[in-house]
Specification:
The chain is of the alpha/beta class. The chain has two domains: 133 residues, Threonyl-trna Synthetase, Chain A, domain 2 (Threonyl-tRNA Synthetase, Chain A, domain 2), CATH 3.30.980.10; 245 residues, no CATH class. It is 39% helix and 16% strand. The chain has twelve helices and 16 strands. The strands form five sheets. Strands 9-14-8-15-16 form a five-stranded parallel β-sheet. Helix 10 packs across helix 11. The radius of gyration is 23 Å and the shape is globular.
Length: 462
């Protein structure tokens, strides 16, 4: 992680410390809850009462005054793995430390978003500019639904989950989480079936390690239950030959650019399939970087639906001439995790990185050093090619599982501990190890063979 990224993260944490103190002063009977990330902001709310627009403006005014006073806040990392910081004469534990005194201050604002507000930051790659912000309504709705679900189950915090495991109730946790996934996938299938007279193409996209492959397989099963016949068209087979691939600003092949795909051929084939015509789908050889001479003959029958999965699947430029009524778009990601406590949320990015570390080592022969080194490039690709189009989705699927970090712990910790402290990404390694330290390990033998988690820990049927 670059020095500016670390500084920016510390600044965000400093703002949260100020927010904690100000809310405590203004609403002494309430508990502030730092909930989840919404693009460049974090959604926050009070535990028992909705906030008004006037109250949010009052908090914002006080927070600006507090930052302008250049507060002297010192964070010290203690043996429990938390940073300890004094706020309003009490110690607040946090996953990140505060910005050092006299450090740079970046712009921020608070946006009223009932029943709470969004604390909006600048981006670390352009920290002195605060961009216009349109709340991602579909993403926010998905987060809120997941949050209310875990609250109703009294499983909103990591301690609640650890207690279940300690009492030997692992199977109940697994059953609840997997039942929710199956219900959601079934509902998505039903929604597609209701529009099956029009829908011919299902497009699935999401960031790295979201569980797209297993999700697509389970959705296909539910579609077949509803009498539809799904067939898959892999976008990977439409890569241009390597010598024709566009290059990035560093002169390297940019395989994640939309232009790395043969868009004219893809659109020609999709149009033909919709008309019931036969195509010969190319087969891309990733070893040679070229298409094979032979292809696969395909035809789409009237009762069949095409499933296309890939990072560009929600980009309107992928199939610009296709009738939107024929398309059904799905965004999938590990969107919601239980919080460690009211002030410390788990980053969905951290969870996906842990998933990827385990999967890369188990299935792809990629060691942790390589995964960590590649992660920055992966994240840039997500920011450019996936996140800008997530609100294009007709539905969103939260692929996170209540118990997954407990299950991943035994797989991920040895990989992380193999990294030396002089590694350029040691800060990330140390942070992930500290996160995993909060989770009790669990026996994964009862995890279903069709679980999304099996895509990462092995033993799955797909």
């Amino acid at each position: 992680m670059s020095s500016i990224a670390i500084t920016h993260r510390q600044y965000r944490q400093t703002l949260i410390f100020g927010l904690i103190g100000i809310v405590e002063e203004l609403f002494p009977e309430e508990q502030l809850k730092i909930q989840y990330s919404l693009l460049d902001g974090i959604y926050c709310e009070l535990e028992n009462s909705p906030l008004s627009s006037r109250e949010v403006n009052q908090i914002k005014k006080r927070l600006h005054e507090w930052i302008d006073s250049k507060p002297q806040i010192i964070s010290c990392k203690e043996e429990d793995g938390f940073y300890h910081t004094k706020v309003n004469n009490k110690i607040i534990k946090s996953l990140y430390g505060a910005l050092q005194p006299h450090g740079p201050y970046f712009p921020f604002t608070l946006i009223y978003y009932p029943p709470g507000f969004i604390l909006l930051f600048s981006k670390s790659e352009n920290p002195y500019e605060l961009r216009d912000y349109i709340p991602p309504e579909k993403l926010a709705t998905t987060f809120l639904e997941s949050q209310r679900w875990v609250e109703n189950l009294h499983l909103a915090n990591v301690d609640d989950i650890n207690e279940h495991i300690q009492k030997g109730n692992e199977v109940e946790l697994i059953t609840l989480a997997e039942a929710l996934h199956e219900k959601k996938i079934s509902l998505i299938s039903d929604k597609i079936y209701e529009q099956s007279q029009n829908i011919r193409i299902i497009l699935i996209s999401g960031p790295s390690s979201s569980g797209k492959t297993t999700f697509a397989q389970r959705l296909s099963t539910q579609l077949r239950v509803n009498g539809l016949r799904p067939i898959s068209l892999s976008l990977d087979n439409y890569f241009l030959n390597r010598e024709d691939t566009p290059r990035d600003q560093y002169g390297e092949y940019d395989f994640e650019a939309l232009e790395a795909l043969d868009l004219p051929l893809l659109n020609e084939h999709v149009q033909a399939l919709i008309k019931g015509e036969e195509i010969v789908c190319p087969i891309f050889d990733f070893v040679t970087g070229k298409r094979k001479e032979e292809g696969i003959k395909m035809r789409l029958a009237s009762d069949e639906v095409l499933i296309m999965e890939g990072i560009h699947a929600l980009n309107p430029k992928l199939l610009p001439d296709q009738d939107k009524a024929h398309l059904f778009k799905i965004y999938i990601s590990a969107l919601f995790q239980p919080n460690i406590d009211p002030y410390n949320r788990l980053s969905t990015t951290d969870v996906r990185l842990i998933r990827r570390l385990v999967r890369d080592n188990m299935y792809r022969g990629i060691n942790p050093d390589q995964t960590l080194t590649q992660w920055g490039s992966v994240r840039r690709g997500e920011n450019n090619n996936i996140f800008p189009y997530q609100e294009e989705a007709d539905v969103m699927f939260n692929s996170s599982l209540l118990y997954e970090l407990n299950a991943l712990k035994a797989h991920a910790e040895p990989l992380l501990k193999s990294i030396h402290q002089d590694h350029p990404h040691w800060d990330t390694v140390d942070h992930l190890l500290m996160l995993l330290n909060h989770f009790k390990p669990m026996n994964t033998s009862k995890v279903p063979y069709n679980s999304i988690l099996r895509e990462f820990i092995g033993g799955g049927i797909y």
